Each structure stands twice: as C-alpha cells, then as structure tokens.
Fold this protein.
Amino acid sequence: MEYRISVQASGSIVCPPDWGMSVGGCDFHRLYLKRGGKAFCRLPDREFPLEDDTLYLFPVFAPYQLRHDPDQPLDVLWFHISSLPVLTRDLLAIPLRGEPALRAGCDFVSNLVGYTWQGRDGSPDRLL
C-alpha cells in the first residue's frame, strides 16, 4: 500500500495559559512529542495524562479534547499531518524511553522546527 503523507504545519512551543482544544473530528492527524508540562487528553471513553518523552498520534475523524495545567504548561513539538490513507482512527502513544534510535530521530527533527507556529502562511520552516 502506498501512503501519501504531508506536513501541513509544525511548531515547537510552551503553550500559553489559555491553550486547549476540543476536536469534533478533523481531517488531519496531530503528532505531538510531549517534552514537559502537565497535559491531559479526553477521549469519548476515558481521560488520561499525556506522558513526557512520548509521541502521540491523534486520530482523524474522531472527537477528543486536549487541555493543560496553566501552572505547568505543555511543552510540545507538534505537527499537523495529512495522509492518504489515514494513519489511524485511534490514538497511538509511543514512549521514547528505551528507544534510542527513535529518540535521536525526534531530537534531529526538533532542531529543524522553529519555535512557535510554522506553516503554509509563508513563515520560514526548514522542515516544510
């Protein structure tokens, strides 16, 4: 099977105090590398904290909510990814602990992505 994947936007940010989102089901994946802070995900059937040094691939066409503790804001490397076919309709969590090659790849990509929002708006982003 052939996949067509494109990065629509990316960023590296410590989220502002009012950050949070409620997604009714969007047509792209969010890929997050959680580096720090205290953040939570609510799916229709459960709520749980997001763990540090973990990659999260959020589903398309599925509802979820994300929020964080403003006193311990979310520090995250993030991407909006479009793919055909879709990569998942469920949340995937991949811990980086014990995965040195994956950790090194994430560190490499982190150095390519500028701090804050980068995307199709014409702002510079070496990765895109």
